[in-house]
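Justification of resources, computational component.

The compute hours requested in this renewal are based largely on the per-chain cost of generating structure records like the one below. Each record pairs the submitted sequence with a full structure-token output. That output is archived, and it is also reused by downstream analysis tasks.
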Amino acid sequence: MIKTADKILTTLENLLLFVAVCCLVAISLMVLLVIFERFNFGPGVPDDVVVLQQTMVVTVGCSLAYITRLNGHISIDLAYAFFGQRMQRIADFVALVVGLLASAPITYWAWKNFMKSVDTGAYYFGEINLPEWPAKLFFFIAFLTVSVRLALMLLQMLAGVRNDEDDLQPAERGLE
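The structure output for this chain reads:
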């Protein structure tokens, strides 16, 4: 069951990474368009700041979900490298528990915030009145994925299940 959940979660994380990359490309193109338009024609794209802000939220949230799978968060390796294997496992366990304790309330808050924006029909004031819920939905899905991944990693650690990537150093996983 853990392997099946891992495969499903991996598929979702890859999809979220694709969304993050698409958002990053959209942000880049929009910034270029806004700069070009303001330089040549005056006023730029309507509600460009709101669109860019919400696209950045989606980009960060979705990419965080992918990075969690790779265990690629910023860590202090200064002492960790000198730990024995048992102490490294204990440090990994503590990191997973703390990460889960940090991400679970954020996930709950993201859900409540998303539902509030849906229930109230909230939108951003501007020329095109963009609804608030799409970015909040992606943020919730991303943090739900982070929380589920951390819980799954914790279960795998407690059950003694190891991924093939567990033995790889960050550079070998594609992280440098």
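The longest helix spans residues 2-41. The chain has one domain: 2-167.
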